Amino acid sequence: MANQPHDDPVYLHSRREALLILLLWGLSFFWTVPYCYLRGYQTLSNPEDLRLVWGMPAWVTWGVAVPWITCGILSILICLFVIRDDDLGHAGDEADSE
Amino acid sequence: MESFDLPLLAVRTSSAAVWTFLGYTVAVFVIAAMANRLLQGRHFLSEYFLGSRGLGVWAFALTFAATSASGGTFTGFPAKIYTHGWILALWIASYMVYPICTMGFLGKRINQVARKTGAITVPDVLRDRFDSRAFGLISTVLIIFFLGFNLVAQFKAGSVLLQTLLQDSTFFRVLRSGVEISMANASVFEGVNAGYLTCLLLFGIAVIFYTTYGGFHAVVWTDVMQGIVMVVGIIILLPLVLSQVGGMNQATHEMARMLPPRLGTATIVLPNAPTKAISTSDLWFRTVDQTEQVWLYRLSGTLTIPEGVQRVSEVKFVGIRTPEEIARQMQRFERPYAQERMETLKTQLIEAGVPTTRPDTAETNVATWPPTNEPALLIAELGEFHSYAQADQPGQYVMGPAPNLPSPEADVPASDAGFLPLGLAISFFFMWAISGTGQPQYMVRLMAFKDAKTLRSAIIAVTVYYGAIYFPLVIIFCYARILLPGMENEADKIMPALAVTVTENAGHGWLAGFLIAAPFAAVMSTVDSYLLVISSAVVRDVYQRNVDPDATEKTIKRLSYATTLIVGSVALAFAINPPRFLQDIIVYVGSGLAACFLVPVVAALYWPRANLLGCLGAMLGGFGMHLLMHLIGWQVYGEFTRPYDLFGFSPVIVGLGSSLIALIILTPLAPPPREELVRRYFCKGPSSLDDAVPPTAGESESS
Fold first, then answer.
1. Is 80 exceeded by the pLDDT of residue B375?
2. Average per-residue pLDDT in chain B?
3. Which residues contact B306 (CB under 8 A, 6 or more apart)?
4. pLDDT tens figures, A27-83
5. Multiple choice CATH, B11-246+419-577, 1.10.3720.10, 3.10.20.30, 3.30.390.50, 1.20.1730.10
6. d(Cα B542, Cα B285) in Å, to the nearest integer?
7. Contact, B84 vs B418, CB < 8 A?
8. What angle do CA A59, A63, A66 make, to 5 degrees?
9. A86 to chain B: nearest residue by CA?
10. CA atoms within 13 A on the CB side of B20
């Protein structure tokens, strides 16, 4: 049989969405780990010098809390505008709904 | 066996706790009965193990979230936050992308592929994709191996938490006495704590029963209830903690001034031997040095002084070193609740014939109880105490690297590297989001949602849900250090201890029962899912696919019930003498499954060229390297659960890397998969069911 193009739309859309998700993971990784390492791994000469933002150490706020909120918003946007409502098929053994 | 007693849980909370437990149990049984009704008239296997692929948004979102949040979320994780401080925000940081990675990366595609062939388990998907019975069997064996381990660990967690919840109630004491009498005649139970066994039986029987009877829908609906309990628990706990530490600014600055405590042992000495046995916990001893500075030492765990015994040695203590913490703790001794507890123990000691004494306070290695100015009733002769590395450096709980616990058993200094060196921080960023994607027990849930729209909405729901649980947990248990100092030796119990403390302080002790239900719900929702994944592996992947493909629906039904019951009972039996390190086993299983399954499943779903040799090699390569790291760790450190970190990376990274290399090297060595297989999974066209592997008898009967 001749080679057919790999053109299943669920496969193509899922692959694109998976790559975007991988990109989002990369963004979160390259924001959080280097930032926290550079700003959070230090010795405090005086405890009163600790800089707080929103009541947390500043490195936690900018290195974890803010990217957490950002990634949350991006995740929601990806779900709303990127992930397609593809027809996933029918298995024959399934119920209509929950 | 370790003693699990935690009399810290006040008696006044016990009736609320019993009602919480009873209400909870009744609810899950009702759910199981409703789910069992759904089994009638539907394709049995698909309904029992996969809910007929019909999960809606909330059911799917909450079952996914609750299954992922295991006992570790409310025991091991809070213990780590308490021990190391704010650095745990980085440790858990990849949860910011966990929902979209674990659900979105594979979700739509694995759901579609499973529908194409009627697959109801992950080994089903792999076997059909590569048309290889051997691949299906190997993946089944790996799932049973890893999840079996984890099931035992989760049973232990469930029992420990339930004991914390119930132990002050009359209901529990009566049950425990019954179990104790039964155990007395059986040598197999030697050394087993009666309270632990009672709770193991209560918890285990409840979970096994509702899972066996109700199947997937029972598990999903109880997960929904449990998911709600968890988030409500956090929502109640957060404001209570924040109000009691004086707000975040003040509390974080206070943490910055904290010095790590010292850990050591002491010998408890009584002026004379008691005429009755005494058992107590949560005791503080004090010494006063020549400059009149008071130093406090908290007893770890439960102190039991048998009748007629005057000295008890090797009792673990934590010595507090921050003057501010000591002053605050001294104020707490004035509170009515603390006074009441002290009076109760004083009465017990006096009734047991123990007189008061005035020890020589010039001896700085002698600490006394009560920790106030009254004459002493108990004396602790302090032994050797170990300090953390850089013990006099403040700020360790708000910056990295955080302090590592010194080892009180061996004379080993704490590692200078501190907690969460960079390599481990990177490993954990992979560990949660990436390895979470590779867990077959979560993949099964991805095969159960109704349609793509359900998936999208569920990812949004879980993103919000996890944000509301995990980050607040870091805040709550960082500040638990302020509210409950000196719990380093029993940090696994910080969640129930904090729940009792903050609700007592707020004058709403009854709320503790509800808060303690949150971790209990987390364990229950994990155990039921694992149980079903293991039993589906046995029934579907071993029996129906390999032993008797023509088995009737009736046989499959009986076998499914029997297998779930037997698997649960065997795990329960192993949990009677469980492994010690719960969190280590959870990490071992999670990383091992990811090392085995992530690369082959991703290749199977997204790479048309992927073939049997490449994917099987990736699975075995990942498993082998992950195991090797643990075996080397066993040789080097003497513990299997303490792996060797190659180049500073945890075994999950090493396992995943090896798995990927094996895939890339081995795939070109074998021919591409057959054309019809590629067409079925990657090409547009008529439903692939038309040319799928013919259904087995059990399926065709009900279709």
1. yes
2. 84
3. B277
4. 999 999 999 999 999 888 888 889 999 999 999 999 999 999 999 999 999 999 999
5. 1.20.1730.10
6. 59
7. no
8. 115
9. B452
10. 25
- What are the tens digits of pLDDT across the range B313-332? 999 999 999 999 999 999 98
Size of interface A-B (CB pairs under 8 A): 250
CB of B485 closer than 8 Å to CB of B509? no
Which of helix, strand or coil describes residue B329?
A: helix
Does position B113 have pLDDT exceeding 70, yes or no? yes
Residue B360 CB burial class (10 angstroms; 0-12, 13-18, ≥19)? exposed
Please tell me which of the candidates B109, B434, B453 has its beta carbon nearest to residue A85.
B453
Q: Is A82 in CB contact (< 8 Å) with chain B?
A: no
Question: What span, in angstroms and rounded, lies between the C-alpha atoms of B144 and A8?
Answer: 33
- Residue B55 to residue A98, Cβ atoms within 8 A: yes
Nearest to A94 among B46, B93, B678 (CB): B46
Contact with chain A for residue B462, Cβ under 8 A: no
Question: What is the CB neighbour count within 10 angstroms for residue A53?
Answer: 13
CATH 1.20.1730.10 intervals, chain B:
11-246+419-577
Can you tell me the mean pLDDT for B680-702? 52
Q: Nearest by CB to B96, which of A48, A72, A86?
A: A72
B90 in contact with chain A, both atoms CB, cutoff 8 A: yes
Per domain, the residue ranges of chain A are: 22-39+50-84
Three-state secondary-structure class, residue B367: strand
Question: Is residue A30 within 8 angstroms of chain B, CB to CB?
Answer: no
pLDDT at residue B255 greater than cutoff 90 = yes
Does residue B402 contact residue B419 with C-beta atoms inside 8 Å?
Answer: yes
Residue whose pair of structure tokens reads 């909405």 in the numeric block: B457
* Structure-token pair, residue B66: 């609750």
Q: Is A81 on the interface with B (CB under 8 A)?
A: no
Q: Give this prediction's pTM.
A: 0.86
Contact B606 A57 (CB under 8 A): no
Handedness of CA B306, B310, B314, B315 (dihedral sign): positive
Query: Is the bond preceding residue B643 a cis peptide, omega within 30 degrees?
Result: no
Q: Which of A64, A73, A74 to mutate against chain B (most B CBs within 10 Å)?
A: A64
Q: Least CA distance to A64: which residue of chain B?
A: B93
Cα–Cα distance for residue pair B152/B167, rounded to 1 Å: 22
Q: How many CA atoms lie within 13 A of A72 on its CB side?
A: 18
